[in-house]
Structure formats: structure tokens, C-alpha cells
Amino acid sequence: MSAAKPPRTVEEHRAVVAALLPPTGVEVVPLAEARGRVLAEPVTAAISLPPFDNSAMDGYAVRAADVAGATADSPVTLPVAADIPAGRTDVPPLEPGTAARIMTGAPVPAGADAIVQVELTDGGTERVAISAAPAAGTHVRTVGEDVFEGTAVLDAGTVLGAAQIGVAAAVGRATLPVRRRPHVLVLSTGSELVAPGEPLAPGQIYESNGAMLAAAVRDAGGTADQLRFVPDDVEQFRKVLAERIVAGVDLVVTSGGVSAGAYEVVKDALTGHGVEFVKVGMQPGGPQGAGVVEFGEVSCPVVTLPGNPVSSQVSFEVFVRPVLRRAMGHPYPDRPVVTARSREALRSPAGRTQFRRGTLDARDGTVGEVGSPASHMLAALARADCLFVVPAEATGVHPGDELEVWLLDSAL
Amino acid sequence: MSAAKPPRTVEEHRAVVAALLPPTGVEVVPLAEARGRVLAEPVTAAISLPPFDNSAMDGYAVRAADVAGATADSPVTLPVAADIPAGRTDVPPLEPGTAARIMTGAPVPAGADAIVQVELTDGGTERVAISAAPAAGTHVRTVGEDVFEGTAVLDAGTVLGAAQIGVAAAVGRATLPVRRRPHVLVLSTGSELVAPGEPLAPGQIYESNGAMLAAAVRDAGGTADQLRFVPDDVEQFRKVLAERIVAGVDLVVTSGGVSAGAYEVVKDALTGHGVEFVKVGMQPGGPQGAGVVEFGEVSCPVVTLPGNPVSSQVSFEVFVRPVLRRAMGHPYPDRPVVTARSREALRSPAGRTQFRRGTLDARDGTVGEVGSPASHMLAALARADCLFVVPAEATGVHPGDELEVWLLDSAL
Lengths: 412, 412
Hints:
The structure is a homodimer of 412-residue chains. By secondary structure, the first copy, chain A, is an alpha/beta fold. In chain A, 17% of the residues lie in helices and 31% in strands. Chain A has helices spanning 10-18, 162-170, 209-219, 234-244, 265-270, 309-327, 378-383, and strands at residues 26-30, 43-44, 54-55, 59-62, 76-84, 99-102, 114-117, 127-130, 140-141, 152-154, 175-179, 183-189, 193-194, 205-206, 223-230, 251-255, 275-279, 282-283, 287-295, 298-305, 337-342, 346-347, 353-361, 366-369, 386-390, 396-397, 402-407. The two termini of chain A are 48 Å apart. At the A-B interface, helix 2, strand 14, helix 3, helix 6 and helix 7 of A face helix 2, strand 14, helix 3, helix 6 and helix 7 of B. Chains A, B: One of its GO terms (cellular component) is cytosol.
């Protein structure tokens, strides 16, 4: 056998995968579809907020000078010259020596400089007795107090939640420019695979990577088409891929068929067609591939993940998820990372970065392993709330050693 | 005026709103639609994982005793009696003194008790020279190592992410029983409101609560129909509500029209029709209402939020979001809560629990205010990443005081 090339580091392969996917294009969507998307351009306020001086209370608009001496014992009575509900668009100016009945949010009439809340009056509709002397400006929300016309209320790169959508609406935006969600084809390979719900013969297993990776793509903000898994047949695999790589597909993610065995359909079908297959110094997930596959005129980025479910899902976390999130503009494409101390002693192979499944105790800052490092322990992955990283150079972890922890449940 | 009733506490009104919404019903969904849903029943494994002893490596299945003396200098050569790719369903037993070529994931033949990885052999297909002596069990993944048939792999109440969907598929489940997403009608009121994108007359403002609350409902896991805001007309409001409250609507959330003014359409339309309007000792968001509205045969829970955008969104966070999440089975319906020290001195009205908009610095454990406590500061809400709570009994906060902080961005 020839001398094996040294394996690629995790960081090197992350860079290779990251280079495959450019930012997605910008599309303009209605507010109702903007949630979870990332703003592609700043939102500048076309109006000030509030757009006009308005009342913060139900009560009476007055000139402060007119009621300067008012107290509970000695109220000042003024004629009520106008009634201003919210939304009134023809508000007359307030003549000296008069009051206007006004509701919360209604425009303060020109000439008025204070609001007396209804509780400090007798609530009259013809004439009103006012029993307190407000300072000028009391309970008036002045134009631009929240936002000045022409300033940015949301920066490009903002992730749009309810409040961000709310402020965009408030400045009059019915639509927002956001990056398109990346669309991913998910394709599992393996002749041993049977669809969940079907009968299982000896030697067969249920296909789980397709549903799992499609869910992971959607968690990352992308859209996914899950292709039925294809048998280990190179021609059929190429045919399915060529048919399905069409405009609008940003990435193909395969699982299985990439290791050193005699029947490796993905490797056999894509070697020499733009995809490079490598060993990455990590566990789980050593065998990886990435590149741009070309079929005649059509080309598409492809990331080929190993087939063991845990390898597949962990590889997605390490290589694919951050790239999808970055493509749609996320300011923080990576999982939140914290440091925690190991609750136990662990052994680790030198030369491989381990991504082990764990549970974090945030109160005491410790992390412990769930299951084992073996790549077929899927039930343990489903109980984990984090991945923790044992560095490539380490051969073990002592209790109390500090470890990097990736928090997995942020989307839930 | 009559003596005002003491205001309801935040906790009291939370309990009133919580009592309105029972758990939603259970529906069975395909795996592709299960992400983010909450499992209504445990998932019990119908098969073990792995379902059969299988190889963890590409290599050769052997009887360990047959290769006990093998070394690199003195390999043991065995005839290759079978070729076992993954998915082979008719694997013959391994006769003593023979080896079987085997791929990762393929069934270990009866009689074999160890796998020699291909790198420790000459890779022969007729005969194979084996240069290492594996212990019994080496590289064999035994049946049930991950999951035993009949055990629960996912508990009721599990929030379904990619890994949980993966393990459900692996034990053969094509569908999962989950709680239905609560469906919410969102309805804004106010004659001053204009749809974003339309021209604005003096005295009018853009309607922002509808899009904001609909996004907040979806963030919470529900589905939302945003009704066009209706003018301040009691009859028209009742008509719209009666038409739209149909089977499948779990909750109506209104905003506006609930305070002490002269034109309070929601209050006027629903008082005496099952909805109680109260003052809650909180800021923002004092005027609140909740109840079950009835129109003839039809009834539906209603929560009426105040109309100021910040009051509306904060009230949703405090009262509605946890109730929607609990209804769909979430084990942790509330926002994640942490404690942080105030970065500044703040004044606070006695008798009102304040929910102020802030930014958390998780590294130094401090929180600071964004904007002001005023309920029209929507742009500040859009820049906040948390709400922090100033208790009802406090009249101020000193720098360094510990505050309860609700983290807002967990869904992003």
C-alpha cells in the first residue's frame, strides 16, 4: 500500500465546504414570511416614530399656562372645544383658554403643550374641571422620540423576529429584502436501507439519515427535498443526481457510500466528477467529500457525508449547518459555544478531533458524555443537548478539564 | 368615581390566561413535518438498534480462534468463503477455518466473532492474509447496543429536532403522534391604523401589531391568521369576530381598544360577552382582558392586549406565549430565565412589575436598558435581546442589583 496522505484537519475541511456556497440571492418577501430570515439591506425609516406629537393618555390637551394654578381644592374649568379620538385627521388648533378631549395615540392639537389625564379631571364633555397643573410636555409623545425619519431602524444582517417585523411595519414597510433560504437536496445511499414503516428483512436497517438531515437543513433555515435513497448502483445514482440538480438547488448533501469499502457508490460515482474524497482527522465522521459536481451544462455543490447516522448528523453540524446559515446571511452561523468542565475521565485517539455527545449542566458549568463515542449510538445523540470537543492532540480528558461545548438545542 | 379595585398581579393574570387554553389535540404527522413539534406519546422501539450484529469496519469476519497467532511477520491465511456487502439478507454461517469479506454495517455471519479491518490484511478476495489477532468481539456492533427492542427511545414531551426524528426513523417509525399547533386569530383595532405600504394622513399611524403578533405566534410554535384591522365600530368588530371564530381556532388575540378611553371598541364589544377587562399591575401593559367569548353556539378563548406596540408585544411574551407553548406540549413553555446585575440606576413605579427592554452581556453577567420604559419605544424593543424584570414592590434599581432576565432570541 502507498503511504497514506495525512488526514485533513476539521478546520481545513470546514474551509473547503464553506467555499462551495456563496450567499444566496436577495428576495423581497411580505412581512408575514419574513420571520427567521436575515435582512439583506438596512431598513431606513421613511417617517418618524411617532409620526406626530400624540397623547400618551386618555384625557385633555391643554396649554399648561392655562391651568398653572389648578389643584384638587381649586380646579380650573375650561370649555371643551374639540373631541380628538385616535385617528382623527382634521384636528383644529387649540385656542387659548380651551381644552380638547383627547384619547391615547391621538394627535396633540397645535397650541397644546400638555395632557391632563382623565383621572385628574371631572371628565366633562362640554366643560372640564381640571384639578392638577401639568408641566409643559406632560404625557406628550413627541414626533421622532422613538425614531427619526431617515435613520436606520434595522441593520443589514438583522435576524427578523416579531419585534423587528413590528418596527418595519411601524415605519410603513409591507415587504422586506431578505436572503433566499438555501435549497438542499438530501440523498441517502445504501442497499441495506428500508423506508421506515416497511417490513425489515434480516440484514436490513431503517433509513434514518434522510429524515434526520432534512430536519437539520430546515433547523438551519434552509429548505429540503428528501430524495428516496438509491441503491448502491453508480449509474442509477448518477442518473438520479443529474435529473434532480436543477436551477434553485443550492447544495446536494449525500450520506453513505464514501468510506474505504469495496462498494462505495457515492465515491465511485463522483470521483473524477468534481468531488474530492478525503479523510478528515475527526471522530465520528472521518470519511468526507466535497466539491462541485458537473453533469454536462449543470453543476451543483455537493457535500458527501458518511453513512453512520451519528457520523452523518455530527458531520452536518460541523461542516454544513454553518455554511447554510452563512449563505442566508446569519450574523452568527455557528452554534453557541461555551466552555465547561468534564464530569469524567475520557480516553481519546490522538490525531482526531472528537465531537462527543453530551449533556451540559449550565448551573455548575460541567459537561458529561451521553452514550459512547461510537458512531452508531443514535439514541444517545437524541438525548444529548450538546456536542463537546476533544482536541485532536489530546489522548484523554481528566475530570475538571475545560472543554469546548456546542449547544445543540438553540432552535427549540 | 367609585374606589378602583386593586390591580391584578402579573401572576394572577397569567393564571387566568393559562386556564383558557387546554392542551391541543394529538395528530399523527409524517417525519418530514415533525420538526419543532412535541411528542404526545413515547416512542417505543419495535426493533433493537442495531437490529443485528454488524461490522463496524470494512474488512473480514473471522473466528478469533482461527487467527489467534497472526502477526505482521507471520500472517494467517484463510480462504474467503463469502462476500457480505451491507444489505445482504442471505448471509451464510461462517465455517471454521474460513473468513468472509464484509463491509461496514453488513451482518456478521453466524459463527464469526470478530472483524479484522481491511488495513490489517492483504485485501484478498479468494484467500486473505491476516496480520493481526483480534480479540473476540473486535469491531462487532452487537444487536441492541444502542437500543433494546421494547424500550422507549423518546419520551412523551420530547421536542422533536433532527436527532430525535432520526432515532424515530431508525426504529421504523414513518409518522409520529404530536400535539397540534394552536391556531390563533390576530386582530388589531384602531381607526388611526393604516396598512404598511399605504399613504399616511396626518394623525394616522402604520398598523404594526398584526404582523408583529402573528410572527410572535409562529415563533411560539402556533399558526396565525392575521385579520385586517377593523375600525373602532362595535357592531363591525362583533361581526368580524363571529364570522371568523370557527372550528380550529384555538385563540383570538386582539390588540388595542381596552384602556380607559371613551372609544374602546374591544372593551365595548366584549364586556358582558364572556371577557373580563382588568388592570394588571405591570408596565407596559396595564389594561388587559381575557375570557371565553360566545356568539350563539360558537365560543372561543380571547386575550385582549393593549394597543401600544411595546405593550402589546410584551403582554404577548408575558401572558400568551407560554400558554401557546404549553398547549402544544412544550416541557419548558417559558423563556429561558437568567439572573444578571444591573449596569445602571433605574427608577420604577411602586405597585407595578416592569418588563423593561434590555441587552444582556452574558460574559460579565450584566444587563442594561435599551431605550426607555415608555410603551411606544418600538425601535428599542427591536434592538433588545432580553426583557428584565423590576419587581412590583421596587421603586428603583441600583447598579449591581440582581435582576431576573428573560432571554428573547432563543428562537433565532
